[in-house]
Design a protein that fits this description.
The structure holds two protein chains of two kinds. By secondary structure, chain A is α/β, with parallel strands linked by helices. Chain A contains eleven helices and nine strands. In chain A, strands 7-6-5-8-9 form a five-stranded parallel beta sheet. A four-stranded parallel beta sheet of chain A has the order 2-1-3-4, with helices on both faces. The N and C termini of chain A lie close together (9 Å). Chain B is globular. The chains are: A alpha/beta, B alpha/beta.
Chain lengths: 310, 180
């Protein structure tokens, strides 16, 4: 069982804890296939989705996960909350705690925002993405999808390609996959590859590889994970044009052929078709992008159960 | 808490004779109607499988088998110290209007069965739900009784009835243990 109040990042999770979450998620996936997609496990618990950044799948998937476990789920987005009246994050959190919330799922553009909250609240804090730091539930659902297809998490070549500089998904996945002994190849245009990124992994850093060449990253890969170009976080120009970016770093079916014949293509969404991924690849036979979405509900049910159900 | 062996209740032969007898009783009571056997995780699962094998030899239609994990329906989740590991639930589709037999190893307070009934009802409206257990040890806290019982025994509250099955424990036997 998880002996922690909060889920803040993959970096400080042990392999045992990660496997416990993934194993539980396998049992929870069945609930979503029932005629009545609901179990009474978290009846009477209150979960608050506190989202300061736009989100479709993470917020919806936490909401569905909570509701399928019979918890009461409340959604707050920054535009409709007192945050727009100038309330600080800390005051918002204390307010929610005073309403006896059991869990707060937070997404915030500032790295470390969930960690600040966790110290102040009695409620469990789940990091739903903080700045370009971590997005632990995404990495867990990615690991779940990979394990379902490849039957293992070790000894794989995983290429993570795209906007590494702004990607919390890349960081969380790198932590998780190197912990299990898979080779992670981070690939980006030089302007999108942050200096010192190789230092984020403390243990097993022989499993982390960096490259600017997409062909090198994709060659013989078991998993190719494409990342969205995060225009909303870009204050300056990182590449000359979208067309040029696609020519060098877009995943086309011709490029995908460099990977292993049983490669799986992943994308955390939302996709920019024609920017980082071609439409025929995104909808093609190797794509598991929609499996990732289904896995998201099961994994988040497991996390809520393990944090709140005891 | 540790356990000390008080006495052995059944050996391997007695376990299989008892399982066979329960299977025969279930068949007799349901007079040839198709059945669904649902084992409660974990030891109800191999019990249901073994009884289904016995029944298959004696009827035209082999009974369907399912498994049920009741942890998501427990009434004491907030009171147990460590969270139970959630196991697989696999209930056959379309069990509306079917005759279902729940299978568990020991009937004690009745709370597991209460949770199992709640869980089953989320899968549809069965014609009947019956209960088969290996051991009924008394001390009920809810108005629940079994239809088919391997053996009824009197126990003290601080005793533990341990059903051991080859599939999990490497042997078939039932022991009564004492908490020390």
């Amino acid at each position: 069982m998880l002996k922690r109040k909060d889920l803040l990042g993959i970096e400080d999770l042990g392999r045992e804890e990660i496997l416990e979450i993934l194993d539980a998620a396998e049992s929870f996936q069945e609930v979503s296939t029932r005629p009545i997609k609901k179990v009474p496990t978290l009846r009477g618990k209150t979960i608050i989705n506190l989202f300061f950044e736009a989100s479709t799948r993470t917020r919806t998937s936490f909401e569905i996960a909570g509701k399928r476990l019979s918890a009461d789920v409340v959604n707050i987005s920054s535009s409709t909350s007192s945050v727009s009246k100038g309330e600080t994050l800390i005051d918002t959190a204390r307010t929610l705690d005073a309403m006896a919330a059991d869990c707060v799922v937070i997404r915030h553009s500032a790295s470390g925002a969930p960690h600040t909250l966790a110290k102040l609240t009695k409620a469990s804090i789940v990091n739903g993405g903080d700045g370009s730091h971590e997005h632990p539930t995404q990495a867990l659902l990615d690991a779940y999808t990979i394990r379902q297809r490849k039957r293992r998490l070790n000894d794989l070549k995983v290429a993570i390609i795209g906007d590494i500089a702004h990607s919390r998904v890349a960081r969380s996945n790198t932590h998780l996959l190197t912990k299990f002994g898979s080779h992670v190849w981070l690939c980006a245009a030089p302007t999108l590859m942050p200096l010192g990124i190789e230092r984020i992994v403390c243990e097993n850093n022989e499993f982390l590889h960096l490259t600017n060449s997409m062909d090198e990253a994709v060659e013989h890969a078991d998993v190719v994970m494409m990342l969205r170009i995060q225009f909303e976080r870009m204050t300056e120009s990182f590449f000359p044009s979208v067309r040029e970016y696609f020519r060098y770093y877009g995943l086309t079916s011709a490029r995908a052929r460099w990977a292993k014949p049983d490669v799986i293509i992943m994308h955390p969404g939302p996709m920019n078709r024609g920017v980082e991924i071609a439409t025929d690849v995104a909808d093609g036979p190797f794509s598991v992008i929609l499996d990732q979405v289904s896995a998201g509900v099961a994994v988040r049910m497991a996390i809520l159960y393990l944090l709140l159900g005891g | 808490m540790s356990l000390k062996l008080s006495y052995q209740l059944m050996n391997s032969d007695e376990v299989s004779t008892t399982l066979n007898r329960i299977a025969d009783d279930i068949l007799k009571a349901n007079s040839g109607r198709p059945l669904v056997l649902i084992g409660i995780q974990r030891r109800g699962v191999p019990m249901a499988r073994r009884m289904a094998v016995r029944m298959a030899a004696k009827m035209q239609r082999e009974p369907q088998i399912g498994t049920l994990d009741i942890n998501l329906y427990r009434d004491d989740l907030t009171r147990v110290a460590s969270q139970p590991v959630v196991q697989k639930t696999e209930v056959p589709p379309n069990i509306d209007d079917r005759d279902v037999v729940l299978v568990d190893d020991v009937l004690y307070t009745g709370r597991t069965i209460r949770a199992a009934l709640d869980a089953l009802c989320d899968f549809g409206r069965m014609r009947t739900i019956q209960l088969a257990v290996m051991i009924d040890r008394g001390h009920r806290e809810l108005p629940i009784e079994a239809n088919f019982i391997g053996k009824r025994i009197t126990t003290k509250d601080d005793e533990v009835v341990e059903v051991r099955l080859k599939e999990f424990d490497g042997e078939d036997a039932i022991y009564v243990m004492e908490k020390i």
